[in-house]
Design a protein that fits this description.
Elements: H1 3-18, H2 21-28, H3 30-41, H4 46-78, H5 81-86, H6 92-121, H7 130-151, H8 158-168, H9 170-175, H10 187-193, H11 197-210, H12 216-239
Length: 245
């Protein structure tokens, strides 16, 4: 891998995103809008927002980054851009790392805005450090980026990329512990939830919500989410082909 080629790839992706205002709005503003609406849905019971707001602060960025990254990457695959890039002396790792870096920078902005709004604009009450909350939100957004890069290899159109959301995101959303504690689920579903990264993202958010100090469970959850993101990025690099279909 080459640092200069990775940075050049990231710069190219960021230049393209700069001209795509709808994608920027989806990535940066939609999580904030969803949190704002959620807070006022529970306007009469702010304790409910406190109970689920932290978890959703991690889930919303993951979903939006998954959607935008999968569609944007697929667009480059189907237009032949990736094929032309791979015909150059550019390693697959450089390409994937460049995309991850570009979308990761957007994820930083997204996480900062969403976390700041939740804590200081909407009054989300957490016991732990806001920086830990921001860290988990950022890792969740990076995980969504990695998943989007990966699934784009298996879609033939942007519509198919969106169709992957029910298969990849919805099961994790149902089993992550947001709606009911995982230890109260049917045993098979509890076991399945234990291998899904979103479950650990929600657990990490809940650790920050209820504990003032960094716990061992929090460290484990963060490492699992980060490890899953790295693993999925590696799988994404393996799916890149020298010729597009």
């Amino acid at each position: 891998m080459s640092t200069s080629r990775t940075l050049a790839t990231a710069a190219r992706v960021l230049r393209q995103l700069r001209h795509d205002r709808r994608s920027i709005a989806l990535m940066v503003l939609v999580p904030c809008v969803m949190l704002f609406l959620l807070r006022h849905v529970f306007d009469g019971t702010p304790e409910t927002f406190d109970a689920i707001g932290a978890a959703l602060l991690g889930i919303f960025p993951l979903i939006t980054m998954f959607l935008v990254t999968s569609i944007a990457t697929l667009r480059e695959r189907t237009s032949g851009t990736l094929e032309r890039l791979l015909a150059m002396p550019l390693a697959k790792g450089d390409l994937i790392a460049g995309y991850a870096l570009a979308f990761g920078l957007v994820a930083v902005v997204q996480s900062l805005l969403a976390t700041g709004l939740a804590l200081w604009g909407l009054g989300l009450d957490v016991v732990g450090s806001p920086w830990l909350l921001l860290l988990v939100a950022l890792l969740d957004a990076l995980l969504g980026t990695a998943l989007g890069l990966f699934v784009s290899a298996f879609a033939a159109s942007e519509f198919q990329a969106v169709q992957f959301m029910p298969a990849v995101i919805f099961p994790q959303l149902l089993l992550c512990g947001l709606f009911t504690p995982r230890d109260r689920m049917q045993p098979v579903l509890e076991a399945v939830s234990g291998v899904l990264p979103m479950s650990y993202a929600v657990d990490a958010m809940n650790e920050v919500l209820h504990h003032t100090d960094t716990t061992g469970h929090f460290v484990r959850d963060v490492l699992v989410v980060a490890g899953c993101a790295v693993l999925v990025l590696a799988l994404g690099a393996a799916t890149l082909r020298r010729r597009t279909a």
